[in-house]
Amino acid sequence: MGAPAVTLHVLGSLRTYCGGAAQLPLSAPTVRAALDELERNQSALYRNICDETGAVRRHLNVFVNADNVRDLDGIDTRLTPGDVVTILPAVSGG
Amino acid sequence: MADRVILTIGTRKGVFVAEAAKARRSFALRGPFGPGVPVYATLVDTRGTPRLYASSCNPFFGMKVLRSTNLGKSFQETKAAPAFPSDDGRALANIWSLEPGDGKKELWCGVEPAALFRSHDAGDSWEMVPGISNHEHARQWQPGNGGLCLHTIIRDGSRVHLGISTGGHYLSEDGGGTFRASNQGVGAGFQPDPYPEFGQCVHKIARHDDAPGRLYMQNHGGWAEWTGPGGPRPDIGVLRSDDYGRSWRSIAKGLPSDFGFPIVVHPHDADTAYVMPLEPSTRTCPGGAPAVWRSENGGESWSRLARGLPKKQTYFTVLRDAMDVDRLKVPALYFGTTTGQLWIGRDGGEKWDCLFDSLPPIHNVKVAVV
After folding, report:
1. Same domain, yes or no, for B334 and B202?
2. Full-model pTM
3. Is the pLDDT of residue B131 over 70?
4. Across the interface, do B60 and A53 touch by the CB < 8 Å criterion?
5. CATH of A5-89, one of 3.40.50.1950, 1.10.760.10, 3.10.20.30, 2.70.70.10
6. Number of helices (H) and strands (E), helices first, in chain A?
């Protein structure tokens, strides 16, 4: 059985780095695997999400459906078919 | 085509470009480009067809380098930005300096955490310069209030001078292959030993092309009232070297404060330098009355240049890269403030006018005649 098919929702300001796509289909068992797939196939988008150490950038939050992965298992959170992964900037002002 | 004066203005909310005829009566403003994203480094690159560069330091999505080939009518991202090797463990936090290298396309770039990168293709790819980035001191440098930044790159043939806050002054004499700390006479008021080998909070270094042995430094001063071990340290803020940066001596006497960020050298006179003294505790204009101070004798004495500047109730800061001077026959100075004003000091700073008074907080001002 293959990795679950999930969808990455792409923030508007980042769509320029993935050919304008608002959503990207991914097949990944975990958030980490989804990011790995992005690194392989959407490297420009990946660089906006993860720094050169491979960590998700400090001021970004990763959600699986409605849950922030920090409240789950971080980027080792498991994905199931149909999940939507959303990456959003943390709330800030100024 | 008539000479034009091009200003790049890096702000907290993107980069602006201002253009004027060389009479500099009025400037037309374009931008912001990279809107909403802080810009700490810009470069007006006059080698061949002019190119403008700006760092775009997005706290959410990382660092970019922007490039314009039409004098700032539009900018595009270069194909890549500096990045540490994946096994290095450091992640780029900011881009603080962009300087031209050899040929028409080489660029040098200073970043935070303090490290140096080089591009051979006008910013489309970058390589880390290991001689300083992996220097044995590098993991011992500590960030100052502005971060651990490599903010000054001065190249002179095989010599390369770097300014790091807080790392100090580093000198290479083999084109950037190897570097050594070169801080004899450069004080560090914020620690018990005021003259360490390295770790000084250098704010900016400048020099004149025709006098490469002479360098000026605005260091982290403001320790004249220090009463702790070693006593007052009144003379560590503004310095000069006459031996290619091997040793430094104070030239702060006569200034209202030896604290400040930028230091600029007159384009046609190596004895003329400019600083912007600030109150050490608040980092704002002394007495609420801003002034640029000029020395015309290599720092032996200083005079106040404030005609046209506010006389009271003014409390901005001018950051390390927010002052520059053009290279016209009678040059003008420019500085940008943390309150978003861009000032021009005509006739070498004798008469000041505010060109723009409501920009975002200004980090960086660079000027060139193209």
Report:
1. no
2. 0.94
3. yes
4. no
5. 3.10.20.30
6. 2, 5
